[in-house]
């Protein structure tokens, strides 16, 4: 049996994949009959052959999860599937995925995977009422429902790409949960909160600010910080965004020192390949020690400002001027 999940909406695709894996683990708790393969890995073909030829422990159904299957050698994968896996095989389930913003070019492996005899789900970006309904469910799952105005504003500002929307939704949920309601009711995501935390130009400015720090461009770093504060951006939000980016940069820098393959780095760090691609220019202007030092300063700054021993806005400007 083959299950094939593919499409441009990488976040919902990952959700569906993780749900299927969780249901498999609940039914087959030994964990001995599940294989995880990544198409970009050099050993992907050998891993697939080993998984297909292996015998099951405890007479459980085997699950072979092949992530981004179209990144592997098409002919080799197709040859192994045709040789070792029959369409009516109920003892081995192959869960194959592929997510890419570019349309898939017609090829023999893709044609095999979308065969009507297989279970196939195509994940396009959601729009309109379907997108609104999905966002409502995601917000409720986080314990922070949208108000009507909050949802409308979020749909206007957050775009339609799944990973970006979820990152913004997580940010809003954390903010709203921290803002405890006096009556003990659920924390609501309002239009005001969305206006405060979700902006289409937040990430570019944060990346520019970080680049300016790395290139020792104090004047530019100061100007970018001033622009964000002049727009009414909360200093604590700016600090959290900078700290979040430096933490990711530290992880990516360390991983890139071991391999330049973005797909492998994505797997090891848990970050989306798009995020890694955007981050590489910023990472390149810092040494690993500089990233560690700066991230440590940011954590210390967060602690001292929360304790009231330092003014956060002044400290952020001091950081910009010291670059």
Automatic annotation (TrEMBL):
Top-level lineage group: Bacteria
An annotated GO cellular component: DNA polymerase III complex
EC number of the protein: 2.7.7.7
Gene Ontology biological process terms, A to Z: DNA-templated DNA replication
GO MF annotations, alphabetized: DNA binding; DNA-directed DNA polymerase activity
Keywords, ordered alphabetically: DNA replication, DNA-directed DNA polymerase, Nucleotidyltransferase, Transferase
Chemical reaction(s) catalysed: DNA(n) + a 2'-deoxyribonucleoside 5'-triphosphate = DNA(n+1) + diphosphate
UniProt cross-references to Pfam families, sorted A to Z: DNA_pol3_delta_C (PF21694)
Domain called DNA polymerase III delta subunit-like C-terminal: residue spans: 204-312
Keyword Mitochondrion included in the entry's annotation: no
Family: Belongs to the DNA polymerase HolA subunit family.
Protein known as: DNA-directed DNA polymerase
């Amino acid at each position: 049996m083959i299950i094939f999940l593919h499409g441009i909406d990488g976040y919902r695709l990952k959700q569906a994949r993780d749900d299927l894996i969780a249901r498999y683990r609940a039914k087959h708790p030994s964990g001995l009959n599940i294989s995880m393969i990544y198409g970009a890995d050099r050993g992907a073909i050998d891993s697939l052959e080993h998984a297909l030829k292996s015998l099951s422990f405890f007479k459980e159904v085997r699950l072979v999860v092949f992530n981004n299957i179209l990144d592997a050698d098409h002919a080799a994968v197709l040859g192994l599937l045709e040789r070792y896996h029959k369409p009516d095989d109920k003892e081995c389930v192959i869960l194959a995925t592929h997510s890419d913003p570019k349309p898939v070019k017609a090829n023999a492996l893709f044609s095999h995977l979308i065969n009507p005899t297989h279970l196939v789900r195509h994940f396009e970006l959601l729009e309109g009422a379907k997108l609104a309904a999905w966002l409502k469910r995601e917000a409720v799952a986080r314990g922070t429902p949208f108000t009507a105005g909050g949802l409308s504003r979020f749909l206007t500002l957050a775009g339609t790409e799944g990973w970006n929307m979820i990152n913004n939704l997580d940010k809003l949920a954390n903010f709203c949960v921290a803002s405890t309601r006096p009556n003990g009711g659920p924390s609501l995501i309002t239009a005001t909160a969305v206006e405060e935390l979700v902006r289409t130009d937040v990430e570019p400015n944060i990346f520019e600010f970080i680049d300016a720090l790395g290139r020792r461009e104090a004047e530019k770093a100061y100007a970018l910080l001033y622009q964000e504060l002049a727009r009414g951006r909360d200093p604590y939000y700016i600090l959290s965004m900078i700290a979040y980016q430096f933490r990711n940069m530290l992880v990516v820098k360390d991983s890139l020192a071991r391999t330049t393959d973005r797909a492998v780095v994505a797997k090891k760090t848990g970050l989306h390949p798009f995020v890694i691609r955007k981050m590489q220019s910023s990472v390149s202007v810092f040494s690993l020690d500089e990233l560690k030092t700066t991230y440590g300063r940011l954590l210390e700054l967060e602690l001292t400002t929360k304790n009231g021993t330092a003014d956060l806005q002044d400290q952020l400007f001091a950081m910009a001027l010291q670059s």
